[in-house]
Amino acid sequence: MKQNVPIVRVALRSAPTLWRCEPSWSWTCRPLADHLLWCVLDGRGVLEYADRRHDLHPGVCAVFRPGDTPRATHDPHRRLLVFGMHFSAVPTAAPDPRCGEVMDRELLGMLARTSDAAYQRKDELGMHQAELCLQQLITLVWDAVRNPGRSGGDAAIDEIARLLRQDPGRVWSVAEMAQRALLSRAQFTRRFVARLGMSPAQYLIQARIDRAHQLLTESGMTVTETAAALGYTDVPYFSRQYRQRTGRSPSQDR
Q1: Is there a shared CATH topology between the 9-146 domain and the 152-253 domain?
Q2: pLDDT by residue (tens digit) across 167-205?
Q3: Cα–Cα distance between 208 and 160 in angstroms, integer?
Q4: Which of 38, 35, 1 is nearest to 21 (CA)?
Q5: Is Cytoplasm set as a keyword in this record (predicted)?
Q6: How far apart are CA 100 and CA 38, in angstroms?
Q7: How many Å apart are CA 123 and CA 120, to the nearest integer?
Q8: How far is residue 133's CA from residue 192's CA, in Å, rounded to a whole number?
Q9: Which residues pair with 36 in a beta bridge?
């Protein structure tokens, strides 16, 4: 059964830490008095808690709750780089299991560095920014726990979907999308539908209509200009697709 993601109120209990573990480092934690966010940014090791074992590598993150007693070791030749912070939370911010792998390593590292730098400013805005980063990091861990095992192919499909939304007026082909994902057309289409609930062609149409609505309501562009900008050479066809997707004509929304 999937856990409901809590809407938590958090307060920092310690400064964010970002440290490279010493070669002889090991960790045997006393029962925690508060929550602890723990994120691996580099290196290799092993984490144990509650008779569970997790191999540590970049992207593995955990949120521990009060009373937890985690233990960890690492490879002294591939020393861990860990970001962490102690905090209070109402209700608990810890998922079960505590640990998951965040696939977006770039976002993970950016949030960790931003939190650390913001806190070091020691002003009210910096503290607020550090807490916002903490909340986002907690959300990433919950997502990793609830949706484990995202493959490289899934990440590629997410990236292609982002590109379609970002530039829907471009001429896209399924063959090009599949090539970008390093999949056959059939594999790509099947996995795209499984992940996003519609075919690549239908997703592109929806992205175009979403962008058309924004242009018509915010930019002052005409219906003809909007259709052309989004790759439509037939304005009546564009209008039919727009009405099918929104229930209104383009001229009504302009």
Answers
A1: no
A2: 999 999 999 999 988 889 999 999 999 989 999 999 999
A3: 15
A4: 38
A5: yes
A6: 11
A7: 8
A8: 31
A9: 64, 86
Query: β-strand 45-49 against 52-56: which pairing, if any?
Result: antiparallel
Identify the sign of the CA torsion 147, 153, 155, 157.
negative
- Domain at 152-253: CATH code: 1.10.10.60
Q: Tell the residue number behind the tokens 């690492």, with chain if given.
A: 74
Nearest C-alpha neighbor of 127 from the set 11, 18, 9, 33: 11
In a 13 Å sphere around the CA of 73, the CA atoms on its Cβ side amount to 4
For the chain, what are the domain ranges? 9-146, 152-253
Q: pTM score, two decimals?
A: 0.69
Tokens representing residue 203 in the block: 């997703």
Q: Distance between CA 37 and CA 70 in Å, rounded?
A: 12
State CA 149 to chain mean position distance.
14
Domain at 9-146: CATH code:
2.60.120.280
Instruction: Give me the pLDDT at residue 152, please.
Output: 53
Q: Which amino acid is at 181?
A: A
Portion of the chain with pLDDT greater than 90, in percent: 79
28 forms beta bridges with: 71
Are 16 and 115 in contact, with CB atoms under 8 Å apart?
yes
